[in-house]
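Sample log: Ribosomal-protein-alanine N-acetyltransferase.
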Amino acid sequence: MKLPPYNIFPNITGDKIYLRQILISDIKDLVEISFYDAVQATTVKQATVMQVKINQDYIDGNSIHWGIADQLTNKIVGTCGYYRGLDKGEGELGCVLLPPYRGQGYMTSAMALAIEFGLNTIGLKRIWAATSQQNKEAIKLLERLNFIKIADLDDNEVEYELKK
């Protein structure tokens, strides 16, 4: 296994998007989708503090968090990454997309790139995701990416695992 941090932060290029490190200049556009420990930011200051914690988690080898950038504009349209379990050879894959970009294939592309990185670069043996039972779009995304439901969790959440 090759866990973070890496000598150079991994930027991953796809067809329409690429995954890159989030810069301080990106944060003002990401407040509404900035989360840490299931708490959502409501101000740029809160989102900045959260990003500092996310960056520290990466430095500590516990996670990797990418901005999903549109190749044409370099604008961050969402985020995705692995947030738990890396030390055990597994990764909880999470994602969030700004509302104007939903339904356009951004997240499918981003998650496919993140899955490939998790399997082939980090060397994960298990990739999983959790979401609300009401989040039908996330469930459709996970199923489209070959995840299968494995558990109903507390708080009306469901867990999915990548089927290899």
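Observation: The chain has a mean pLDDT of 96.
Observation: The radius of gyration is 15 Å.
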